Amino acid sequence: MNLKVLYFASIREKVGTGAEEFELPAGVATVDALRQHLRARGGAWAEALAEGKLLRTAVNQDMVPGAAPVKAGDEIAFFPPVTGG
User: Fold this and answer.
1) Quick one: average pLDDT of 26-39?
2) Element (H, E) at 5
3) What is the pLDDT of residue 9?
4) Cβ partners under 8 Å of residue 77, min gap 6
């Protein structure tokens, strides 16, 4: 079963896509592990999802911390924090 990953705002601009689907990689069981897996692609991925960079994450449209579990069939969204004005 596939995992759907969504990218918003500046992350989408850097990686050049708003969404992708792929098979959940073996050993990837948390949001942080998925982020690390995606960063390993290098280039724009490493920059957009850099360790220590403040990002928000949602799993199935619920805000979650990096330790939140992910499983096949989930929809994971990465987006930068937003501020109001």
Assistant:
1) 95
2) strand 2-7
3) 93
4) 5, 6, 7, 8, 57, 58, 59, 61
45-74: average pLDDT: 95
Place of tokens 């990837």: 28
The whole domain housing 54 covers 2-79
- 59 occurs within a structural domain: yes
29: exposed, middle or buried (C-beta count within 10 Å: 0-12, 13-18, 19+)?
middle
Task: Give domain status of residue 84, yes or no.
Answer: no
Task: Give pLDDT tens digits for 16-28.
Answer: 999 999 998 899 9
The total number of structural domains that make up the chain: 1
Nearest CA-CA partner of 30 in 76, 61, 80, 81? 76
How far is 78 from 5, CA to CA, in rounded Å?
8
